[in-house]
Amino acid sequence: MILVRDIRLPLSAGEEQAFGQALRILRLPLGKVRQMGVSRLSVDARHGRPKLVYTIAVTLKNEGEEPAFAGASPCVALRQEPQFCITPGIRPLEGRPVVCGLGPAGLFAALTLAQQGFAPIVLERGPALEDRVRAVEHFSATGELDENANIQFGEGGAGTFSDGKLTTRIGDSLCGYVTRVFLAHGAPPEIAWQQKPHVGTDLLRGVITSIRKEIEALGGQVRFNTALTGLKVQNGALAGVSTTAGDIPCKALVLAVGHSARDTFEALMDGGLAFSCKPFSVGFRAEHLQSEIEKSLYHEAAGHPALPRGEYQLSQQVDGRGVYTFCMCPGGQVVAAASEAGRVVTNGMSYHARDGRNANAAVVVGVGSEDFGGDPRRAIAFQRELEARAFRAGRAGGLYAAPAENVTSFLEGEGRLRIGRVEPTYDRGVVPADLGSLLPAGLAGALRAGLRAFDRKLAGYASPEAILTGLETRTSSPVRLARGETYECTQLPGLYPCGEGAGYAGGIMSAAVDGLRVAAAIASRYCPAGD
Questions:
Q1: pLDDT tens sequence across 405-461
Q2: How far apart are CA 384 and CA 16, in angstroms?
Q3: I need a labelling partner for 173 at 20 to 30 A (CA). Which of 260, 344, 431, 447 fits?
Q4: What is the 3-state secondary structure (H, E, C) of 456-486?
């Protein structure tokens, strides 16, 4: 793929003019092109005359010719598709490998193992996606929570009910391979070239189901509604797993349970595994009118039909803590993401079209091992206590209603909620509350300082209409299980900690890549027992 950057055009121009300019820069005849798309589109609003700034992605019918055109100009670069190759191991693996968890990490680990002939057994504590969607909709409508079928648990993991972002900071060469797998299973074609690709929760569901069906077609077995409850150890190595449906002999376990599997973490700690604290963050969901965010980002160009939905990412250091925005969902909604009874958790979600009135993002502050004396159980208990406070604060509005207040109110500690043009989208309803009182004073103070800084960086961020809904506590796993260079747990041979829950990923793309690498480590060491 060839990327042609810094194509500057007036607002009256469109994609066709950008494509034509890219071809002229490359000195490339149209007949050689297989596909073109907009990789990035931004606005240069300096000097009072906004311009559209395009990056165009070009794929040739003969991809082998692409390097010859890539040197046409300093603004042209070649992006090569990564290869994912595994040299098969020669040591027979006794029995079938088990993958615990069917989020992105477990899904890609299981797919890779199945493609290598291992016929993995996949354990998922929640139901298949169709039943999971019904459970989530039922909770949204009634407040009746299924602790194993919700926005955190079930086929696809927590990322299924999100914006479906495939952006990541890990810079791993396998990100392109993950994208190709998503495309092969029905993801929209533009994710191949967009700088900030997203699938959307609606389209992501079909992609996940398709990948799972390929695992099954290759001999893998997915056991839904089956949770891991413990490990069996023999001679210092993994010998099997205990589940809610019985024991399974197992010499290789991919532990990809996700960031919210607190009962699993505790069961493994009770069984002798030593977890460590990992940094995570807590805070709220901030909602603004999407149109107002775009006015702040695009200025006079806001509303132009050629522009993408406006996105932002903000950060500020406050007294040694990071305050930042996370998982921004343009045109999305705030969702009820509880997975334990009597606790309120918020998260953000958007559909592929991103056509909702509001933008939302997590506004959070970091906490770390030093806040909990290095005790992972205390870190988990801290999350739970915050969620219980949020549940109590919202209880007057009904089961799993959430506490909320205007940004300006939070900055002044008033506990006031006035609903104007920004209407809260949290699906279980909101109740006016003093959000600062739900957090330790130091964290609330850091969030206030961060929000003031954000308002200086993005005009209107602390507008009187903007709303905070709480609490956001599941930004990432609070714990980590140590593993070595071979991806195997340093404490227990045969156990492979993987993905976000084990502390090695943060989002769909990085979790999927970690699943690939863990599965490759197993497949390059072992061969299926029947080979």
A1: 999 999 999 999 999 999 999 999 999 999 999 999 999 999 999 999 999 999 999
A2: 52
A3: 260
A4: HHCCCCCCCCCEEEEEECCCCCCEECCECCC
Residue 250 — left, alpha, or beta (φ > 0 → left; ψ -120 to 50 → alpha)? Answer: beta
Q: What domain range includes position 236?
A: 91-276+482-528
Which of 482, 524, 488, 523 has the alpha carbon at shortest distance from 502?
482
Say what the pTM is. 0.93
pLDDT of residue 48: 63
Model pLDDT, residue 531: 57
Give the chain's domain count.
Answer: 3
Whether 477 is covered by a domain: the verdict is no
Amino acid identity for residue 482 in this structure:
A
Distance from the first to the final alpha carbon of the chain: 38
* Calpha distance 154→497 (Å, rounded): 19
Residues 121 and 54 in one domain: no
> Rounded to the nearest 5 degrees, what angle is found at the Cα of 434, between the Cα atoms of 431 and 439?
115
Residues 6+ apart with CB under 8 A from 74: none
Structure tokens at 489: 């747990």
CB 28 within 8 A of CB 286: no
C-beta of residue 66 within 8 angstroms of C-beta of residue 11: no
DSSP 165: B
